[in-house]
Amino acid sequence: MNMLSKFGKTALALLLVAGTAACGNSDDTNSANAPDPEGQQEAQGYEYGVGKTFHSDEPVSYSMMFSDNEAYPYQDDWQFWSSLKEKTNVSFDLSVTARAEYENQKALVVNSGDAPYIIPKTYDETAYVAGGQIVPISEWTQYMPNYTEAVEKWGMADDLKAKLQEDGKYYVLPGLWESAAGGYSYVIRKDIFEAAGVDVEGSEGKWTYEDFYAALQKVKAYTDADYVWSDQYQGKSSLNIAGVEYGVTGGWGLANGVKFDEDKQEFYFADTTADFKEYVSYFNKLIKDGLLDPESFTQDDESARAKFYKGETFVINGNYQFLADSASKMTDKDSELYMIVQPGGPKGLLQVENSRLENGVMISQNALNDLGKEDFIKMLRFVDWLWYSDEGQTFALWGDEGDTYTKDADGNIVLNPDITYNGLNADTGTKQLNVDLGFAGGVFAYGGTDQLRYSRMTEGERDYIERIKEYREPRAIQPPIMASPDEAEEMNLLVTPLMDYVDTMTLKFIMGQEDVNTGWDAYVAQVQANGADRYIQTANEIFSRTKETLGY
After folding, report:
1. How many Å apart are CA 429 and CA 463, to the nearest integer?
2. What is the pLDDT of residue 31?
3. Which top-rank group of organisms is this from (predicted)?
């Protein structure tokens, strides 16, 4: 995971100083405010750097949007704010917006030119690029030593290619993880599987979906249950993670149906391939053989969970938090719940999660215009400390060492017993780390080392992640389609009806409403009629034009 790909070294050089060669001719950056490609800017009136706490000699305040999560509502007296001020001499002038309205408010203030300087919790920045209100931040990362160190040390050049826009720059500082997460998989009743003769731990390292099918058959024979597996999320998570192993798209990962052939260096439409036919046929087989509950694709989550809790079914899709929450809800208190490593498929034994990027921070052009280059760089170096330094990330998640947590002899975080978070200290905690103190919130607390990620996990979840790393191979990161605004608009007009049809037919094939063998040719013909070939042609034309920027 930490090694650069064959394109990575080239891409890294491009990414860290993307666009700087042309910055003198930029329409939105005058020469006085132009970045230096070498990142040379003496710190006057503040301290910063790798291994150092950012601190301003004079008090400073930066305007920032803040997404207010209803699970831990904003409080102006959180310890987070006072501790941050004490550490750095920096405070925020916040525009607090309810989480449900955050994206709408973001669009309003950015498009009107009134955006605060710092805009966190940004998942998709594409819509804001053309308006000129967001700084092309890849021109400025050379001033951010913690961010740059993480990119280089963790080999993240290929990861960052996914953020490049048509101009070869990126406009958001994404959260950076040392390794990809474990993601969703299948929570099983391990006690039932083993009683049925399935050696779960001995098999999961190499099992494929066909092996999993055989295991489900054994469980059905042993339990005589109507169904072994009844899914939540209307099957969308299972279709997504299985799609990875079959080299297709479905469920939550439906997207545009496009995959990239690394050998041919071209995009292709995956959801008309033989792999897709095999994928839908597999799920249809589960339905026909009474292994998968047909209601999986229509029922609400609570119905699926109730069947699992009552012992009517023995497999359900979920993440590790779901497993942890379910343990106390099982009717059979001797139930042994276990998160299996996702089965492999025709494309290999692949890690489902391959992105090490999180949502990120956009920087408003107002910050550069108002502050000027020198103080703008100062602000970036504060952002660099809070979101990308080990110290800043640990502070945002766990708070103040000696006050909210200590460290054991191995350097592991030990949350104070009077504070509870994520199931820790549930019996002794009188204060909640996020609700009462303001730490571990979604605006600040993401990204970091494996050790920091593991610090918030139970032993069982850490074991799940380690099994994925041991048994599954990382998969290549697909390059972005760096479309112009006009091309993006044309492609969006094509992709919505195209993928709506694919999604509809996926379920019809799975449920047996359409026979995958007799109806296959008609399906492929309709996909092509809906514009798949045209979409792929455009995608490859764009790739041909931009592949040098991407390091190919």
Report:
1. 25
2. 64
3. Bacteria
